[in-house]
Amino acid sequence: MKKVLSFLGPYRIAVGVALFFTLVELGVELIQPFLMARIIDDGIMAEDLSVVLLWGGIMVGLSLLAFVSGIINSFYAAHASQSTGFDVRSRIFEKVQSFSFSNFSKFPTSSLITRMTNDITQIQNTIFMSLRIMLRAPLLIIGAVIMALIVNFKLALILLVTVPLLVLFLILVMRKAGKLFRSVQERLDIVNSVMQENLAGIRLIKAFLRRKHEAKRFTNASANLRDRTVSALRLIEIAMPVTLLIMNIGIMAILWFGTFEVQTGGATVGEVVAIINYTMRITAVLSVFSMIIMIFSRFKASAERIADVLNTDADLTDLDHSDENIQILEGRIAFKNVSFTYPGTHVPVLKNLSFEVNPGERVAILGATGSGKSTLFQLIPRLYDVDEGKILIDNRNITTMKLQNLRKQIGFVPQEAMLFTGPLKDNILWGKEDASMEEMMEACRNAQIHETIIELPNKYDTLLGQKGVNLSGGQKQRLSIARALVRKPKILLLDDSTSALDVKTERKLLDALNDYQCTTLMITQKMSTTMNADTIILLDEGELLAKGSHDELMNTSSLYRKIYESQLGEERKE
Ligand SMILES: Nc1ncnc2c1ncn2[C@@H]1O[C@H](COP(=O)(O)OP(=O)(O)OP(=O)(O)O)[C@@H](O)[C@H]1O
């Protein structure tokens, strides 16, 4: 909670002003029963109209002051709460951007979305409500008890017994409710996760007629959320009748002893009315305590969830001695005894892997599904760090380069072509923000997508839907290749990026790559692509099985021969 509250720091003036005007409102509220006692005792009982008019006028004036104070308070409370929410959201976004993939395994996407939306809204609402009314509640209770003691000490002793008991009870409820609301937020994460998967995979769901199954999955998650919310709310709702019962008993006791005191001259009628009035105000505040408990419990749960993200250190960062200016001049790559296991798992995906790739070489990486090809790729731009061994580029350990600098010089085309909502050209400029129109078109021509783009009604300004939904699979692949080519990388990593292209288009694309002086690593399942590579690396269950040219492997590797023959067989059948 402290972590989140520290975000209020820059807005301390707004918080101070809001609190000051809360105190003004509170002061007016506390003084009113006192003035009422004066009107009754010195005005009505003494039949003096001028006293009634004087104190009555003062009461109206004070009410106006409270009204204006309320407006100013709202203004500053809104400013402080919304700005704090904005800052927390920006900080979380920044933090998430710095996360490594292993950080992401701790926080699923849907949970991060809930934290950045729902949890932050809870925090904004709580800060606003606190500055507006909630801080008034404890102050009003303390102030009303003190004022009641001033008005008539003996009668107010009843409040000194009932109020602390109730406050203790409510604190206990709040503690329990805090835990329940944390699990409410966790269940909300699950609902969001199911919904997110559903929307992302809606085409697949329709194609596989999985609507009923998915609807059931969603209903289960939603019912879990409902049940947990209901039990949290139930706990809070019992707080209200208990509060009302105890406070009403208190009022009865004040009336009972008050009548006795008035008869014996220990209290005036005005004093009894004033103390009843203070008790009623305390009761009103305590009866909305259930709402306050709920808001605070949710705030506590949300603040903890946000602090979890903010306190997580990005575990893949630059080393202290990493050099900003190292340029990849040649593009020589070497894996030296590299082993890697995904965080949170125990089975090594890459085992003692060693190989070298010469500058400008075109290497095909071949292997069964799950043999570790994509993993190998992800280690080169340091999306993960190796567990053992090292990766060298131009004979330098990649950890000695600044992350940003390393990644800037690598063109990475992932297995799933990922495009973003917005103009098509912005997606290409992702590769190099300051690329000229000519550079962009050159990259697109080489990626064999320029002709397709210029046939679109808005050409390079065509708006892409989410994940490039309005493009075909092959078009998306070629666009993401263009995005990598526009930065003229020294190292190009193509992760099965030509799988959706026909042989002729792929041939043209690979020929165009000859113009780039870069080392190219291609993961591929196609023998036609493999045969055109200078070198082939054959992986099997994370180990290097063979390395060499097509001809060499045909002579030395029985597995390679088998793959070749199985594909050639298929081609013959076709
Ligand atoms: N993020 C991850 N967390 C844990 N295990 C993973 C993760 N990504 C991949 N793996 C596991 O690592 C192994 C290698 O996966 P990888 O994606 O590198 O294989 P691949 O050879 O590229 O397969 P494919 O040809 O099907 O793309 C697989 O067994 C996979 O289950």
Walk me through this protein's architecture.
- This protein has 574 residues and is of the alpha/beta class.
- Among the domains are: 2-186 and 236-310, ABC transporter transmembrane region fold, CATH 1.20.1560.10; 412-488, 3-Layer(aba) Sandwich (Rossmann fold), CATH 3.40.50.
- Helix content is 64%, strand content 10%.
- The chain has 21 helices and twelve strands.
- It has a six-stranded mixed beta sheet with strand order 6-9-10-3-11-12, with helices on both faces.
- α2 runs parallel beside α6, α5 packs antiparallel against α7 (153-200) and α7 (153-200) runs parallel beside α10.
- It starts with a helix and ends with a helix.
- The mean pLDDT is 84.
- Bound molecules: adenosine-5'-triphosphate (ATP).
Strand content: 5-15%
CATH superfamily of the domain at 2-186 and 236-310: ABC transporter type 1, transmembrane domain
| Ligands bound, unique | adenosine-5'-triphosphate
**Biggest sheet features:** 6 strands, mixed
Terminal-residue CA separation: 66 Å
Give the CATH class of the domain at 2-186 and 236-310: Mainly Alpha
Q: CATH fold name of the domain at 2-186 and 236-310, please?
A: ABC transporter transmembrane region fold
Helix proportion of residues, in percent?
A: 55-70%
Count of helix runs: 21
Global Rg = 35 Å
pLDDT < 50 stretches? none
- Overall average residue pLDDT: 84
Structural class: alpha/beta
What overall form do the CA principal axes indicate?
A: elongated
CATH architecture of the domain at 2-186 and 236-310: Up-down Bundle
Number of strands: 12
Strand order of the largest sheet: 6-9-10-3-11-12
